[in-house]
Design brief:
By secondary structure, this protein is an alpha/beta fold. It contains 28 helices and 20 strands. The strands form 4 sheets. An 8-stranded mixed beta barrel has the order 11-12-14-15-16-17-18-19, surrounded by 6 helices. The structure holds ligand C2E and magnesium ion (2 copies). Ligand C2E binds at residues 412, 427-429, 440-442, 445, 461, 485, 487, 547-548, 571, 603-606, 623-625, 630.
């Protein structure tokens, strides 16, 4: 009776693995599913082995139930021997070389043929009883062909050993050592059971292997995202590192939910997470509908990645199109209507992204480098475009710009309605790169804010502009002050006040000649340090403008509480002024701000009609292409001199 103890242990272990994986919902992804399948196979093998052992295989049965035992033993052989190729499949999946099985090459055949031999010998055994037989008294006996089963087992071990050693580079050293020890361990079990059939340890050895794999190596928590329920970012990077490591090509769909931050703020974490969960589940479901094997990952910050097999490019593109359609529909959770905005890109690795590190950086920033489109962007289409190369090279371009001192300040004249002349100008930075030519600040300022380069750039801007104010021709032109853009990141520099004051002192410039422009996001950033900086500077005599008013959340409380002298209407106000409702908003905003004693500057005025409308409304300053584009220092001074000496206004 003792012989069944090993099987019972094996079943308990396999059941533990099964419950462990299912209760934690680690049932996604091929590797996890193969482990689940192995657990089920082990439980079935154990059950059949226990049944055979208890019902007479080794014990005489009266009356004999030989035919039933024959069937159950055959089933046992079929299932038990399937566990080894199943483990081999698991390894192919785990090492990320599943594709090797697909093209009916050597990997496919070495996986299939040995098992086919087992199946065939079971079939033949029905007629000649040479693998095993059950005697009339119900006792099990091995036949001479049993050797075939053992040869097959040894062949599989050899293949498993070969695969483990061959692809060891795709896993950590400790994992490799463990996987290798499994081979040795299982082989020992098979041999000892061959020598002593009463020692039924084969199934137990395999059960121990998958138990260790599921708990120690597999670490499903590392590859499944606990919140979204898809595979995780960690899993994504691990799997892709393996794919690159073994040269396995893939199709990669990257989806960035561009409004994810706003959604999280507006919906609250719980509903936001449900929306992500729903979206992840939808992606998995879409793959099933179009019969496409997909690995769906959530990489955090609103980014999903879907990996498919290389030969399924067309289907993957179809899936991308389905996702575009999904993104255009809204859905409701807890009575809230939710709409996701997304950017979707399809890449072929390793062709479009040649190395693992280029994949890593691309997957983090692709939403900034690909164009805005309501369709799937094919990376191969845009790779060679100048725009894409510039965007993906932006950090290097900035670095080069700083090292080679390629930044220049331009100035856009600002017209004062009350004075009927140009009283100021906005300093706007320009970068001319040797390779790419003009690079827009709209592109490099946000990138520099991300990388931290903004501090160096900001320092250059402050010094260059303050130096300019000091120049004799500036004073002679009648200009009163210059507006300087301050970035979010600069506002929270603790030393900002001393830095700016130090510069005005150094160049003997009055604080009132400097007007600092902040955006609403800046004002919202880290209120404590930002406020301290603003108030200290304001008390020293520097002035402030609120830039891009109308594009952010229009935090009235902060507009009121911070000492902004000027509020700059964003160009989007101007663009929409012909919309009657927008005009009502503009008129009332002007009234409100005037009653708060704020001056109003209108940006982006490009024609006379706009100019007249905003002047009639009582706005104080006008800036825009109607008067002039941003100009180089000398041209700017020339422009102001010429216009201020004659009739400034073109009205
Ligand atoms: P901003 O501060 O709102 O600057 C106004 C932008 O509108 C400038 O774009 C200007 O050239 C453009 N503009 C002015 N009038 C018109 C017009 O009539 N029509 C049109 N279509 N555009 C007009 P630019 O120079 O490309 O700068 C873009 C943004 O980059 C700036 O927006 C600002 O946020 C940032 N930036 C520029 N220079 C600096 C800088 O020195 N430091 C920092 N931190 N940010 C800067
Ligand atoms: Mg500005
Ligand atoms: Mg602006």
């Amino acid at each position: 009776m003792r012989i069944i103890y090993f099987d019972i242990c094996a079943m308990v272990l396999a059941l533990t693995v099964f419950v462990f994986l299912v209760t934690r919902r680690y049932t996604k992804g091929r590797t996890n599913r193969l482990i689940l399948m192995l657990a089920v196979l082990i439980i079935l093998s154990g059950l059949l082995d226990v049944y055979d052992s208890l019902y007479g295989t080794y014990v005489k049965q009266l009356p004999s139930n030989a035919p039933v035992q024959f069937v159950s033993n055959t089933l046992f052989y079929l299932i038990r021997n399937f566990t080894t190729p199943a483990y081999l499949l698991f390894l192919y999946s785990y090492f990320g070389v599943w594709h090797l099985l697909k093209n009916r090459g050597v990997h496919f055949w070495i996986t299939v043929i040995p098992y086919a031999v087992v199946a065939l010998s079971m079939l033949v055994n029905c007629f000649n009883h040479k693998v095993f037989y059950i005697d009339p008294e119900g006792v099990y006996h091995r036949g001479p062909y049993i050797i075939v089963i053992y040869v097959v087992a040894l062949v599989y071990f050899a293949v498993i050993l070969w695969i483990t050693v061959r692809y060891r580079k795709t896993v950590r050293r400790s994992e490799f050592v463990m996987l290798l020890s499994f081979v040795v361990f299982n082989m020992t079990a098979v041999i000892s059971q061959r020598i002593n059939p009463g020692m039924r340890v084969e199934v137990l050895a395999l059960a121990l292997t998958i138990f260790m794999t599921a708990t120690a190596i597999q670490r499903p928590e590392e590859v499944v995202d606990g919140v979204v329920g898809t595979l995780s970012q960690n899993g994504f990077f691990t799997d892709m590192r393996r794919a690159y490591g073994v040269g396995r090509p893939t199709n990669l769909l990257l989806i960035k939910i561009t409004n994810h931050r706003a959604l999280r703020l507006n919906l609250g974490l719980e509903i936001y997470n449900s929306a992500l969960q729903r979206t992840g589940a939808k992606f998995v479901q879409m793959g099933k509908i179009i019969n496409l094997y997909t690995d769906v990952y959530y990489n955090g910050r609103g980014v999903f990645a879907i990996v498919t097999e290389a030969d399924k490019y067309e289907q993957t593109l179809d899936m991308g199109r389905l996702i575009v359609a999904y993104m255009q529909e809204s859905f409701t959770i807890a009575n809230l209507e939710i709409r996701l905005d997304a950017k979707i890109c399809l890449a072929r690795t390793p062709y479009d992204l040649q190395s693992y590190s280029s994949l890593m950086s691309f997957s983090n920033s692709f939403h900034r480098t690909i164009p805005d489109m309501d369709k799937v962007v094919l990376l191969s289409d845009i790779l060679d475009s100048k725009d894409y190369r510039m965007k993906s090279e932006i950090d290097n371009i900035i670095k080069r710009g700083i090292e080679e001192k390629r930044f220049r300040m331009f100035y856009q004249p600002i017209y004062s309605v009350a004075d009927d002349k140009f009283v100021s100008g906005e300093a706007l930075i320009r970068l001319f790169d040797e390779e790419y030519g003009y690079v827009s600040p709209g592109l490099f300022i946000p990138a520099a804010e991300n990388s931290g380069a903004i501090h160096d750039i900001g320092d250059f801007v402050l010094e260059d502009v303050i130096k300019f104010i000091r120049r004799g021709d500036f004073a002679g032109s009648g200009l009163e002050y210059i507006e300087i853009n301050l970035s979010v990141a600069q506002c929270i520099e603790p030393g900002l006040t001393d830095k700016i004051k130090g510069l005005t002192d150094k160049y003997n410039v009055k604080p009132s000649q400097v007007n600092l422009e902040l955006t609403e996001t800046a004002a919202d950033y880290d209120p404590k340090i930002t406020d301290e900086n603003i108030f200290r500077l304001w008390n020293m005599g520097f002035k402030f403008s609120l830039d891009d008013y109308g594009t952010g959340y229009s935090n009235i409380k902060r507009v009121v509480s911070l000492p902004f002298d000027i509020v700059k209407f964003d160009k989007s106000f101007v663009d929409e002024m012909d919309d009657p409702k927008m005009w009502i908003a503009i008129v009332n905003t002007v009234n409100m701000l005037k009653r708060m004693n704020k001056k109003i500057l209108v940006e982006g005025v490009e024609n006379k009609r706009t100019l007249d409308r905003f002047i009639d409304l009582g706005c104080d300053y006008i800036q825009g292409f109607y008067f002039s584009k941003p100009l180089e220092q000398a041209d700017f001074i020339k422009f102001v001199n010429e216009h201020n000496s004659g009739r400034a206004s073109k009205t």
